[in-house]
Structure prediction request, 558 residues.
Amino acid sequence: MDRRTFIKLSSLTGATVAVSTGLAGCVSSTTSQTNAEFTHGVASGDPLRDAVIIWTRAQPPSASVKADILWEVATDKAFANIVASGNVQAMASSDFTVKVDVAGLSPDSTYFYRFISANNTSPIGETKTLPSQDVDKVTLGIFSCSNYPAGFFTPYMEAAKNNSIDYVLHLGDYIYEYDGEGYATEHAKEIGRTFAPDNDTELFTLTDYRKRYALYRTDEGLLALHQNKPFIVVWDDHEITNDTYKDGAENHQSDEGDFYARRAAAVQAYYEWLPIRPPFGAERLEIYRQFTFGSLFDLYMLDTRVLARDKQLEYAHYRDSETKEFDKATFMKDISEPSRGLLGDAQRDWLNTAMQNSKAKWQVLGQQLLIGRMLFPVSIFNGVPREQIPAHVHTLANLKRKQTQGETLSDKELSLINTVMPYNLDAWDGYPVERERLLTALNNLNKPVIALAGDTHNAWHNTLTLENGTVVATELATPGVTSPGMEHYLSMDDEAATTLANDLPLLIDDLAYCNLHQRGFLTLEITEENATATWHFVDAILTKDGKISNTHTFEINA
Prediction:
């Protein structure tokens, strides 16, 4: 066993799951428990048709290294009909977090659960198993990119009140690793969202990551959503560090210690604090897994970050430092390298086999990155000051409007709108061979496919096409919970951001819709005949009084 593997395995052994024996395993509440405080509410996740993970954190008195607690699952909120229960220990080795894999449950059923110590009872959580066969409809709530200093998690709170949401998907950036003076901290002090002195630096150690999760899980919106809905989660990069790839990260420098030790610490804390059933065990990095919603749809949660991603390309590396000339030939050679990828052979083979064997009507991909071809006019990248980009795009969009109205454009004008390049090489645009391979596999299914994405902090709706233009799938990207979007990067007010959002679909062939300045979440209601995507945008994250202010809806026919 090499050193990297040893670090990974030895650092993950604390993330354990207690497995229940199902309906026959009920335990009397008179069983001995010890004192403990339930400091971070309750949560559930990774539902199956007959099982679900339930989670809490049970903090014993400071001198103790464990707490003995009781868990109960019932069909009613009064717990008159308890169907499963048992004893479990909260251990210091897992940060006093507890996960129980409750088995023997009925399909498509709502359950209530709680934890009991000698001196406390946790809040009552509500969860739901997956359907086993026919189901009329399922509604998913889809989230990503929740940054604590940036604001209150208003979208979580609003979703917790939404009774139509059956299950929550979180597509990553559940936490951020930055220090208290860095990214998205402009309003942190005024709204009381700063970090404690012992967690105010960038995250590197297991203790660092654990404390950051503990802070995030004090937000009232996140507590409410976890308490009311089962989560299906996957990580992105910030659960570890910015722009992570398989053997490094943009935000990990040579003087910041061993990257693999940092990654192992981050993964252990993730497995401890999230209600997830690690598909290959807590000792493994593989997080990809499948959820079957009866005969309606199969959901595939993918990892495009940690497991197999090759390092991102950067345009700056292909531009001469003196002449500023761009080495297009070398860039095209590198970006077209067949071996560069995101998924890795094992995950790709698993996905293709699972989709080919699926008996469900719809196929849904839950993953981090925009797959769509986000090809922006090259002139945007050629020295236009950042704050002038919206106006420049508007000029180009007006050229496109003239063209669609039948006016003749000059060769120069045509070149301006037709010469394009990917704007984000961290997304699937930076891995075009891998993307074409994936889209070809999706096209061969002859089934309706929806790809979900997070990462960008903005709302997007793309048509996914092969290089030859064949339409393959629909892509829906959720806005960030609080992380700032394109309005922040381009210094736009609401009016300018709305104008830019109206302009971009004219210039980007496969883009149908975007919202570039509002935080929120996405819901997806799936039936046999169609799927309805609704983006929900909130009016405030700098106070706790925010609410949903506007929505946008799109219907996808099967």
